[in-house]
Amino acid sequence: MTPLLELKGISRFFGGLAALTDVSFEVRKDEILGLIGPNGAGKTTLFNVVNGFYAPSRGEVFFKGERISGLKPHQVCARGLARTFQVVKPLQRMSVLDNVIASAFLRAKSKAQAVQIAGEVLHLTGLYDDREVISKGLPLGKRKRLEIARALATKPELILLDESFAGLNPTEQNESIDIIRKIKEIGITIMIIEHNMKVIMSISDRIIVLNYGQKIAEGSPEETRNNPLVIEAYLGEA
Ligand SMILES: Nc1ncnc2c1ncn2[C@@H]1O[C@H](COP(=O)(O)OP(=O)(O)O)[C@@H](O)[C@H]1O
Ligand SMILES: [Mg+2]
Fold first, then answer.
1. Is 236 helix (H, G, I), strand (E, B) or coil?
2. What share of the chain is helix, strand, coil (3-state, %, to 5)?
3. Predicted confidence band at 85 (pLDDT cuts at 50, 70, 90)?
4. Ligand 1 pocket by C-beta < 6 Å: which residues?
5. φ and ψ at 205, to 5 degrees?
6. Ligand 1 mean position to 176 CA, how many Å?
7. Is 142 left (phi over 0), alpha (psi -120 to 50) or beta?
8. pTM here?
9. Which CATH number fits domain 1-80+157-238: 3.30.1490.190, 3.40.640.10, 3.40.50.620, 3.40.50.300?
10. Mutational test site, ligand 1, from 11, 17, 47, max ligand atoms within 8 Å of CB
11. If you measure from the C-alpha of residue 217 to the centroid of ligand 2, how many angstroms do you get, rounded to a whole number?
């Protein structure tokens, strides 16, 4: 079966710095794929290459069997691949509802349809009761969820989550784990960057490990936890 997403030999250079070197892997439909590695390993750069924010210096990205490297971010999103950002940046002065409606217009053919999609997404992410709140007034945990809600409102088949748990307290972490499981249940495939080992080990079906821009491991949470290369590069420090 064609993988949902396929990276083939991706390298990305910034001047003399190799942020990614010859990275290849696939994301299978309906899985939760964890992406881990030390700070500066190239995780966010990889998302930026996949969603078209950066062109790869070498290699190609395929989504549903079609080449997407070379497309602009809005074109990638229109194909059904959405992402969140490590640093949350919803439109601060808009209400939560209007923020999500704005994203829903990627697919919605009318205001009514956009409102309906937004309502569904706000229920899913537990933000419905906050819909009238101006976005900048939300606490961090809910701003992170608003980022997820805005990505979901574009009706993606694959969603890329960049550190959606960073800065959350344990209660908020558990709420977000529930939301991610629900997203999976409605048939959306997930690739997630996360530092919290308890979170990533419990929700991921498979895990990819990056170190200095290279893929050093790929496997089940169990295999990853026990991989000497991973322990040395990353887990040992935790
Ligand atoms: N736009 C850029 N210009 C120059 N260097 C960059 C840029 N984006 C990322 N980098 C560098 O690429 C490396 C990987 O960064 P990043 O992908 O943000 O790592 P991670 O998300 O794993 O912490 C770092 O050394 C970072 O400084
Ligand atoms: Mg990052």
1. helix
2. 40, 25, 35
3. confident
4. 14, 17, 19, 37, 39-45
5. -80, -40
6. 26
7. alpha
8. 0.95
9. 3.40.50.300
10. 17
11. 18
